[in-house]
């Protein structure tokens, strides 16, 4: 069977509507107890660009049809539906198609752009219950709306893939044009009981039933009435003191666009809401911890600064200033992390500030300028502290040993690159000093000092990378500085 990349040939004008169908049609598959396949015309034939299997029944098509051309038995059915814009079902057409297969047009802006086939499992057929009758009728209503171009609604405020969104199996209520309940599934009845509704619900108005259970002091979502009357395709949360239900409505429209009924899906999301609140609370706690750690470190930095002013020894004063710079570097990281809980952090503002701050502290009263080329971009948060300390140490070392009495220039260059033979990207950062200022050679010392030891440990142990120092060749002015090069893999 010929296959190719599904969807790559689809007209871009049609893509948004087809994507909307694929996002919503699991509801139709579950209600119909059938597999559904979306066919798009290609090269005088068709290709399947999506398939959905029902959660409520055994699949009819165990092999995924996506990317395939239709079997010979289905081709004439697709041609007929695409040409006429009318569905082909077992009850309304005499086309010889596979048993249990019906087809519906997908209409967009009054034009048939694709075809949906519905594949029923004939082997598992049995006596239909009231639930199955309502489900199949509701699925048929949705397929008719797909053929009329009215479902899924373009302005829908609900998505079947969103977090906590109700599904068919969670509970279904069918209401008429006046909002009166004509059927409630067993799971929907259970959901009503959790709200405190114990009596039979058939024939009662859904909106009144629900709102009577709400706490009068709690604010009412402005779209709740429209959802519970089935007038708007949207989702709303129904909250009581002990229970939270998610309700999603799907208005059912006839061929004239008139509202004649609606489906309301219900799901108990009490536990989901509780876990979300726990995560929010945990995130807030973590942010507060980062904030307090930052404050404490800034206090330590201030104490070190005060202590350094009392030092009579220049070496002792310089050592305290370096310690203060390292503390400030970690404090800056915690300040950044306190403002976000994302898995990745935009490192540019953090590390550029750190580089500039480290140069200013190390320079003291001298005039040392900075230059930054490239971008760190988004990086995992766990890299923030070691990278900040590495930048701090390299910048401090470059100023102390790579600039003269009158100052100079220290540069930071950032690149993303691939090492030869390695599939994963590397972050490469370079700190460069001028080396010779006013004819005096002041190239950075590459030895076993504390700063060098700190950098090596951070790069090799924390960042799993490598570091090297390179002597630069003299330029036209005779300057020959030092280039510290750090490579950090971005896949660990």
UniProtKB/TrEMBL annotation:
Q: Which SUPFAM superfamilies match?
A: ATPase domain of HSP90 chaperone/DNA topoisomerase II/histidine kinase, PYP-like sensor domain (PAS domain)
Please indicate if the UniProt record lists Transmembrane helix as a keyword: no
Name of the protein this chain belongs to: histidine kinase
The EC number(s) given in the record are 2.7.13.3
Q: Where is the Histidine kinase domain?
A: 288-492
Keywords of the record: ATP-binding, Kinase, Nucleotide-binding, Phosphoprotein, Transferase
UniProt xrefs under SMART domains:
HATPase_c
**Recorded catalytic activity of this chain's protein:** ATP + protein L-histidine = ADP + protein N-phospho-L-histidine
Which EC class is this protein assigned? transferase
List the Gene Ontology MF annotations in alphabetical order: ATP binding; protein histidine kinase activity
PANTHER family per the UniProt record, alphabetical: ETHYLENE RESPONSE SENSOR PROTEIN, TWO-COMPONENT SYSTEM SENSOR PROTEIN
Q: Which InterPro entries match?
A: H_kinase_PdtaS_GAF_sf (IPR038424), HATPase_C_sf (IPR036890), HATPase_dom (IPR003594), His_kinase_dom (IPR005467), PAS-like_dom_sf (IPR035965), PdtaS_GAF (IPR022066), Sig_transdc_His_kin_sub2_dim/P (IPR011495)
